[in-house]
């Protein structure tokens, strides 16, 4: 369920509002525990959010950052979420944070998933914050409606799954729904009327295989949206 909706008239403003909320949540948890885990999404939407968050004052050396999903491409590839995080998040004050990538040197996500899962298992769970995005087809992380691995990603108790979808070219690796839900707070960051309409459609139905974002609407989710 959408517990709280924060809207702003510009994408920069909503990105800043989200960064303030995430920083506050991390600070709160860092008062209680030594390390915290922050799970971020790739795609184009999070860039101003990451840049704003990177400037927030926090004990960043105690923050572990990882991703909700990744393309199985070299980390210098222009589509790499790893590269995106290093460019837009691990800068300014947040350069002190530790980053845990979702890729390794294996040729495929199937071959690499076990090692990635072991590394992620060593982080602090539940994660303090998961920031999700959503595509126009209702996918979130790399849980795509046209993926043969979707049902597994929604039901498996594994840390990660290898994912392939005809709608996207590159093989992917994705945290499962179970792992993304293993978090104290979840935020959904969207821009544009089209995505708002997709979310409204998701909220009025129940088939998670049609719109995978539905699988995250049965628990509190805070929406951050700008036109
Ligand atoms: O492929 C992906 O798409 C979604 C949304 O991306 P955006 O470019 O529309 O912001 C993203 O949440 C997901 O992590 C990413 O891998």
TrEMBL record:
GO terms for biological process: carbohydrate metabolic process; pentose-phosphate shunt. It is an enzyme of class 3 (hydrolase). The keyword Transcription regulation does not apply. It comes from the Bacteria. GO terms for molecular function: 6-phosphogluconolactonase activity. Its EC number is 3.1.1.31. InterPro entries: 6-phosphogluconolactonase_DevB, 6PGL, Glc/Gal-6P_isomerase, NagB/RpiA_transferase-like. Residues 13-218 form the Glucosamine/galactosamine-6-phosphate isomerase domain. Keywords: Hydrolase. It catalyses: 6-phospho-D-glucono-1,5-lactone + H2O = 6-phospho-D-gluconate + H(+). Pathway: Carbohydrate degradation; pentose phosphate pathway; D-ribulose 5-phosphate from D-glucose 6-phosphate (oxidative stage): step 2/3. Pfam families: Glucosamine_iso. Belongs to the glucosamine/galactosamine-6-phosphate isomerase family. 6-phosphogluconolactonase subfamily. Hydrolysis of 6-phosphogluconolactone to 6-phosphogluconate. This is 6-phosphogluconolactonase.
């Amino acid at each position: 369920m959408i517990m709280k909706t924060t809207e702003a008239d510009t994408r920069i403003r909503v990105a800043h509002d989200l960064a303030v909320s995430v920083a506050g949540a991390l600070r709160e948890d860092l008062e209680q525990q030594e390390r915290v885990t922050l799970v971020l999404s790739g795609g184009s939407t999070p860039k101003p959010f990451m840049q704003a968050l990177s400037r927030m004052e926090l004990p960043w050396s105690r923050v572990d950052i990882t991703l909700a999903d990744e393309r199985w491409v070299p980390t210098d590839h222009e589509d790499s979420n790893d590269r995106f995080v290093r460019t837009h998040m691990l800068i300014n004050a947040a350069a002190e944070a530790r980053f845990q990538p979702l890729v390794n040197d294996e040729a495929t996500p199937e071959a690499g998933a076990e090692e990635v899962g072991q590394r992620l298992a060593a982080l602090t769970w539940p994660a303090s914050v998961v920031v999700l995005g959503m595509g126009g087809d209702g996918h979130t992380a790399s849980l795509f409606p046209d993926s043969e691995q979707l049902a597994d990603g929604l039901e498996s108790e594994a840390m990660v799954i290898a994912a392939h979808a005809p709608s996207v070219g590159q093989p992917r690796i994705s945290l499962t729904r179970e792992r993304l839900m293993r978090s104290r707070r979840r935020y959904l960051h969207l821009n544009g009327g089209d995505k708002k309409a997709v979310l409204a459609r998701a909220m009025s139905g129940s088939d998670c295989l049609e719109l995978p974002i539905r699988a995250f609407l049965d628990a509190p989710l805070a929406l951050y949206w700008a036109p």
